[in-house]
Amino acid sequence: DTEVTQTPKHLVMGMTNKKSLKCEQHMGHRAMYWYKQKAKKPPELMFVYSYEKLSINESVPSRFSPECPNSSLLNLHLHALQPEDSALYLCASSQESRTGAGYTFGSGTRLTVV
Amino acid sequence: GESVGLHLPTLSVQEGDNSIINCAYSNSASDYFIWYKQESGKGPQFIIDIRSNMDKRQGQRVTVLLNKTVKHLSLQIAATQPGDSAVYFCAERTSGAGSYQLTFGKGTKLSVIP
Question: Residue B7: what pLDDT?
Answer without folding.
Answer: 64
